[in-house]
Amino acid sequence: MVCCALLAGLLGLLGWPLRRWRLRPSPLAWRPHAAAPAPDPRFSASARLASFRFAWAGLRWLVRNEPNARLHLIAAGLVLAAGAVLHVSLADWRWLILATALVFAAEGLNSAIERLCDHLHPKRHPAIGTVKDVAAGAVLVCATAAALIGAVTLLPYLHTTMPMCGSATR
């Protein structure tokens, strides 16, 4: 028992220099200066309208400047056209719309992260590369999930619409 207490005391003494790093305030707890005016919390229709204009401007920028966003937009259009041609049920429309919106939102976030990283650190850096790779990987996961959702949703409609090989000749 005395050995355990002695060992704990020695480990405590070894950890004493590390204590000052642990007691530093977290950079995540940063707050702006108290002198900065607080934003007006009241509802303003013009502020909401401006917010929507900014959002649409961001979507326009995304489609104009990001080739992958255009590719996802074309794929979404093809999926929605296929859903209309195949007379997909309302429940299946929900899945198709959710999947296409998920991919487009992920692509928008990926593009925003990439632009921010390029702005903050224009030169090549391994950490920035990792951040960009992870963001692109998230888009890949969303696009793969959307492709699977599209296949699972649309294939039964294609199966009932198109005659199978051999069944049309009988």
TrEMBL record:
Active site per the UniProt annotation? E107
Q: Residues that bind a divalent metal cation, according to the entry?
A: E66, E114
**Keyword Cell membrane on entry:** yes
Give the binding site residues for substrate: E107
Membrane topology per the entry is: Multi-pass membrane protein
Q: Which GO terms describe its cellular component?
A: plasma membrane
- Membrane-spanning residues where? 70-89, 95-113, 134-158
Indicate which residues the UniProt annotation says bind ATP.
E66, E114, K132, D133
Q: Where can this protein be found?
A: Cell membrane
The annotation note on the cofactor reads: Mn(2+), Zn(2+), Cd(2+) and Co(2+) support activity to lesser extents.
Q: Which InterPro entries match?
A: DAGK, DAGK_sf, UDPK
One GO term in the molecular function aspect is:
kinase activity
Its keywords, alphabetically, are:
ATP-binding, Cell membrane, Kinase, Lipid biosynthesis, Lipid metabolism, Magnesium, Membrane, Metal-binding, Nucleotide-binding, Phospholipid biosynthesis, Phospholipid metabolism, Transferase, Transmembrane, Transmembrane helix
| Location (main, coarse) | membrane
The reply to whether Lipid metabolism figures as a keyword in the UniProt entry is yes
Query: Which Pfam families did the record assign?
Result: DAGK_prokar
Q: Which cofactor does it need?
A: Mg(2+)
Q: Name one GO biological process term.
A: phospholipid biosynthetic process
Q: Which family does it belong to?
A: Belongs to the bacterial diacylglycerol kinase family.
Q: Per its UniProt record, what PANTHER family does this chain match?
A: DIACYLGLYCEROL KINASE
Q: What is this protein called?
A: Diacylglycerol kinase
